[in-house]
Each structure stands twice: as structure tokens, then as C-alpha cells.
Please model this.
Amino acid sequence: MADTPDDRLSPKDVKLEDNHLKRMFREHLDSIYFGKQHLLEFFSEIEIIASLQQLKLAIDELRSDTHKQILQMDDIYHSIHKAPTKISILGMKGMTLEAYLSVIKSGKTPLERDVFILFYLQIIEGVEVTYFKVLKNLATAIGYSNTFLNEPFDTAVENKILFEAIYKEYIS
Model:
């Protein structure tokens, strides 16, 4: 039977053991690492579908940033003396499948497809921002330096802002 916390406890009362925090850190790191690898293929597919050059260039920049973030995460694995462990990324795959199907539905104009692409890219970047923020908090709790997560976090934030700005231009 699973351990259930006492209902009267507040988050301040809970003390997670270091090994649990490290396991959660690794699972989150693995999730975003393999999620990013999946996204590289998705970005290539939607870049072909995108109609406006500005959006194509932004997706290409996103793909380049994603490659860099994967290399940065490789450095994180190296610094903690671990290797990536394959993990289910079903949530990310489901979201990208939904995005792809929404974009390619017949009857959409090229502009409508671009707007749908931008919508899903904003969602994806929002998820990435959250993952990197969680990793930074876990790293601090474990005693790892979280500075190695600053650049991938900042890149995810910048990409989210970029796609929001392009989206606003499209719908204005």
C-alpha cells in the first residue's frame, strides 16, 4: 500500500529525503531531455507546414536552441555522473500529435495553420519553462548548483516570448 501523507501536514512540515529529491531531479531531467529530442523531429515537420518566412526562421532558431539545450543537459548529466535514462514522454508526444493533427486538418488556410502552429509552440515553451524551473528548484534543494540551468531556462523563456510576439502580430 502506498504511503499517504497526514492530511494535517502542510508543505513546510514535509521533509523529503535527499535520495528522493535526486530521483525526482533525474526523472524531470530525463523527461525534458527525451522530450527535447522528440521535439526536434516535430519542429522539422511544422517548419515545412509553416507558410510565412518569419515563422519558418523562428522555428529554425527554436530547433537550433533545442540542440544547444540538449548539449547543456548532457553537461548536467556529466556533472552529476549519470547518463540519460529513457523515460516515457507520452504527454509530450500526445501534445505534438494533437498539434500536428490540428494544423493539417483540411480546410485551413495557410495563415490559420500558422496561427495553430504558434499556439502549440507557446504551449510547448510554457511546459519547458516549467520543467526548467522545477529542475532549478530541485537542484537547489539537493545542494546542486542551479546555475547550469540558467541558460536553458532563459532560452525557453525567450522562445516563449518570441512566439507570443509573433502570434500577436498574426492576430492583430
